[in-house]
Predict the 3D structure of the following.
Amino acid sequence: MKYLIIGAGPAGLTFANRLLDKGMEDFLILEAEREAGGLCRSADVAGAPLDISGGHFIDVRRPKVNEFLFRFMGEDELNSYERITKIRTKDNRIGYPYEANIWQLSVDEQVEHLKAIAAAGCNNGVPEPDSFLDWIPWKLGTKIAEDYMLPYNEKIFSTDLSTLGTYWMNKLPNVSFEDTLRACLMKKPYGTLPGHARFYYPKKYGSGELWLRMAERLKGHIEYGVPVSELDMQSGTVNGTYRADIIINTAPWTAFDRIDGASEEFLRAVPALKHSSIVVKYLPDVEDNEVNWEYFPDRSLDYHRILYRNTFAEGSAGAWAEINLKRYKKSEGDTAFVTNYAYPLNTIDKPRNISLILDEAKRHNIYGLGRWGEWEHYNSDVVVELALDLADKIDK
């Protein structure tokens, strides 16, 4: 065929549907699972949807993406929410982001945080460090680092933070002593605040329903239950059976058992890519009437985030916890789902390795796309936009 698409997650489904829009039908998708959706799949748990790879929401900030997605699930089928999130430390529960809500702490704690922010390296001309472990106190001050950012990131990634780089954080503004002081005096957030303030979630379904509908339009173009294990880059052949002029890979490069026709540098770069795995565990007796989700830096707890589904999934009860697989303490009777490929790890050497992989693959008409094809922690809305752009560019 002309196009072989590996993976029926948001990237692969969007790319394929855009091909159909353009009148192109000479393509096939191979999907390892028995249903489409990738990281955005949902399951029915206790009569309500639960997103089995963690919370996935539709951001409202990309009109082009929303216009495309609304074709499959109309805006009238979605609820719109103002995001309410909190951070639960051992002694406090404060708004997110932490640095904008220090005013919610006691006066003594506010003073300690302000002193640490004033002394932060980024506010005093200290060169930016290469290691994420050192970057956290350099950017946020030692107090936020010790009370929140260091323990939280240790939990979510469960890896040595000194092996992670800082290039993926360079768009974050410095934590301003003046803005933080103003927030404490005014008793409200002040300064630059993050996006994702509003999101959509289906009224009657989990987030996975949208992607199932996208797959429905592609009937006859998807083969399910076909894990991709072998890739021959020279001939454009997958599993020794499927051959295409152009391959769109949305699967993890490290998931291939064998890659032929690649350089030695390529074959060294692939296993150097690292990732983390998570468990999503259903919590039937946990609810909240205000907060959509909450972050937990407390090292004594195995989970790092709880999503209170009763606040965004109509008619639901309970919540779910997200836990790094290395930290998961399994209990008898758990309703839990494991996602082996959850987050790409931004190791110090990742930019060089993924750039080498993508450049060499492209020379063989193989394109990496999406969170795993590009090894970037993209949200689904970003993935959709990238897939639309690639389909428009590549099939002119």
Observations:
- The two ends are 17 Å apart (CA to CA).
- The chain has a mean pLDDT of 94.
- Residues 121 and 127 are 7 Å apart (CA to CA).
- The first strand starts at residue 3 and ends at 6.
